[in-house]
Write a structure and sequence with these properties.
3-stranded antiparallel beta sheet, elongated, 7 helices, mainly alpha
């Protein structure tokens, strides 16, 4: 706001004839050097919080537990955004290379390797269950009934992922 005010004062000074146009133009030409930037939304997860998440998700049973471990494994192990996880298809995962092929922000294609053995195991666990589901959808991660049998097999939404992250963080006492 103060730069806008300064620009206004300089413009009014030029209009009143107190400074030349060249002086006005030179003084309001701040260029890109004064542009502000912001840190990305969110925050880093501390190692002790990762341990809490791992312990909490390990205690979840059934298809829901496998889904949570798979989603969190991909998000944390591959540093993926929620919308990228929601948009993954079955063919995106290469079990031999333990990598994911995805289309990310800005329509950029990338190959993401699973960073740890536990991440790859969680995805493999989910895939074993996912292949038994009678869902014809191509999505890698689909909705399941909480703690029970697989549900309709619908694609995950970003809103659902947000709810999942909040409920898991609350359950893990983070």
């Amino acid at each position: 706001l103060s730069l806008v005010a300064l620009r206004g004062v300089l413009k009014m000074s030029w209009r009143m004839g107190l400074i030349s146009y060249e002086k006005y133009a030179r003084n309001v030409d701040w260029g890109k050097s004064l542009r502000a930037s912001r840190l990305p939304a969110g925050r880093h997860i501390k190692p002790e919080e990762l341990q809490k998440l791992g312990a909490y998700t390990a205690g979840l049973e059934g298809p829901y537990g496998a889904l949570v471990r798979g989603c969190f494994g991909v998000m944390l192990g591959g540093a993926l955004r929620a919308f990228e996880v929601c948009g993954l298809v079955m063919e995106a995962y290469d079990p031999t290379e333990r990598s994911l092929r995805l289309i990310g922000k800005g329509d950029k294609e990338a190959i993401v390797a699973m960073q740890s053995e536990s991440t790859a195991r969680s995805v493999d666990e989910w895939l074993a269950l996912r292949k038994t589901m009678k869902s014809a959808t191509p999505w890698l991660f689909v909705r399941v009934a909480h703690g029970q049998r697989p549900a309709r097999g619908e694609m995950l939404s970003v809103k659902w992922m947000e709810h999942l992250c909040l409920s898991v963080a609350k359950g893990a006492d983070i």
